[in-house]
Queue: 2 jobs
Job 1
Amino acid sequence: MDLLSLRETLETLLVDQLGTYTLANGVTTPAISVRAVGELSPARTTVSGLECIIRREAQLTGLVQYERSTSFRSYTIFLVNWGDEDLGAAAEIVTRGFSDAAIRELTTLTVPQGQGPQDQMRLVLQFNPEPEEEP
């Protein structure tokens, strides 16, 4: 699974749950984004409801079997509650939607009250390698 396909699938799966980004110019868009570690939303962007953030850099885990080597690609996804959203229900939708992926991690992260979102969850999805074509 590549990053663009992952983002498109997540937006489709969470279409009824996703909150809204309101950009500095007043334009609104679904609250889903792809970001690098430490990258923030554009200046003066506000978010309401459920936000989905996908870490841009995939983690690769190598595996050597016999004379072949391959790697598994894992993506970290954050579900962030900026209102009264049910993160468990959203996580269930994501995990059911990616039946071909292994859930490597599902962690609820504590957020100090008054310091931003209500709560957030981190999911790490590991995808099997793409099958190689036979010569």
Job 2
Amino acid sequence: MIIDGTAIAEKITEDLKKQISELKTKPGLAGIIVGDDPGSKIYINIKEKKCKELGIYFEKHELAADSTEENVIELIQKLNTKKEIHGILVQIPLPEHINKENVINTIATEKDVDGLHPVNMGKLVRQEKGIVPCTPKGCIKLIESTGIKISGKNAVVVGRSNLVGRPVAILLQHANATVTVCHSKTQPLIDYTKQADILVVAVGKPGLITADMVKEDAIVIDVGINRTENGLVGDVDFENVKKKAGFITPVPGGVGPMTVAMLLENVVERI
């Protein structure tokens, strides 16, 4: 079965819209974009549109590509103290001359709705209450939507980035899966992926996972977004793997909409 991330995300956002309408304080989100990256502009505009649909106050701050790291940090510090702003997101990637970690570390931990601040990452590892990164949080909800329990399953995560791979592996461990994390040095990759009841792929390499690498009836979550001549594709050979997997997310229409929905959920939870 194909996991319809768009439909699941719409249900979540409808519930959030109702919740927001009953709040005395209107949630507020500030989005910062530095430079002219086309993808970043698309993503931040999607977030702005969704905020308006739900009744979330949204501030968009567009900075020139030659803005200094100090300019970005100064803006974040101002937003940290702004009462009507409950969440701050910095659209990645940033220009090369700006240190991403320094920027993220400046965001107040309680306003870090992307869940990337070291304090929130630490809380995630320690299984303490904090802000969970959006894409990994969405991946878990997509897996849960299948009705299959994560507990006791063999889970394989391909990719070990701080943005997706590591946090999703931690969340799967918290749900009592036995987790293996694979990466570019894992040899041979097929030996691990074929054992996975749950396979999460977040590498950014189109067609990396082929049908022979997937266990029969596995849950396959494709986080990859790759722009090709044939349009957007994931890291999984979707057309062939879907014939073998029990559940699979498409690209687009799988993890992407859930990432935005989880961001909005994180903002509302700050109230």
